[in-house]
Amino acid sequence: MRLPTLLSAALFTILALFANIPAGRAAEDFAVLLERANGAYKQAEDFARKDVPDAAAFALDEAIAAWGELANAYPDPPAPYAGDRQWRKMLKNISARLHKALALVDRDDPDSRAAYETLRPIRILLHESRQRAGIVTLADRILALSAVMEVLWPERRNLPDAAGKTERNRFRDMVGALNRAFANIRKHAPAAVAADPSYRRLMAKAEKSMPLLIRSVESGNKVLFLNILRELRSVERLLYFNFG
Fold first, then answer.
1. Using CB atoms within 10 A of its CB, is residue 221 exposed (0-12), middle (13-18) or buried (19+)?
2. At a CB cut-off of 8 Å and minimum separation 6, what does 19 contact?
3. CA–CA separation, 33 vs 35, rounded Å?
4. Which of 71, 78, 202, 224 is spaced 20 to 30 Å from 154 by Cα?
5. Are 105 and 27 within one domain?
């Protein structure tokens, strides 16, 4: 359980400054607020995944405040989310998950794993909201990359040798899907993201590593496959954390 600290008090003081923002804000202001709320959520999710409950609790405090501010300012979403008729229901779901996760990490016997599993679906809830609104963003393309990685990562030690042709075809399919997911991100990245140095470094790493991963499958090189997949998983996680 967290001890009362000046840091905690300062956090709530800072967040209070953002209260009472006029409801009639422009769409770009909505986008900024949504990005801040999503960023706070992702930080909390990452701390829970890494089993750092105190940090997760502080991040969840911020996420709860940010999502609460968004819900108060936008009980109905502006464009381009205006087509989502389940917006309010989604916001209530997100709020419930954030509060539940906070209760799990802010106790004498914190359960970071349970908090992480509680938070993970929020990413899908946001994706489904965009689907209902009929929009596709870079976050959705990064989600597609993560979905492929979730299938491939558990197989990281299961690469067959060069003689296992049938099973090797399955790995070819998975690696091909991963390659297409990276290409889709690269093709559709907004100009501001494409110019971001961090994004460029991550995508350059993926572009360098993907041919090696393909080569490892063709040769049955299990060590190379494992090492390169680890690198690409790190790229995927950083793309999500910074741009998803």
1. middle
2. 69
3. 5
4. 202
5. yes
Q: Which of 108, 107, 120 is nearest to 244 (CA)?
A: 120
Same domain as 175, residue 118: no
Residue 1 lies in a domain: no
Closest to 82 in 3D by CA, of 118, 135, 161, 124: 135
Q: Which domain holds residue 117?
A: 6-133
Q: What pLDDT tens digit does each residue of the chain (244 aa) get?
A: 554 443 444 443 334 334 444 444 456 688 899 999 999 999 999 999 999 999 999 999 999 999 999 999 999 988 889 999 999 999 999 999 999 999 999 999 999 999 999 999 999 999 999 999 999 999 999 999 999 999 999 999 999 876 667 888 999 999 999 999 999 999 999 999 999 999 999 999 999 999 999 999 999 999 999 999 999 999 999 999 999 9
Asked if 93 and 199 sit in the same domain, the reply is: no
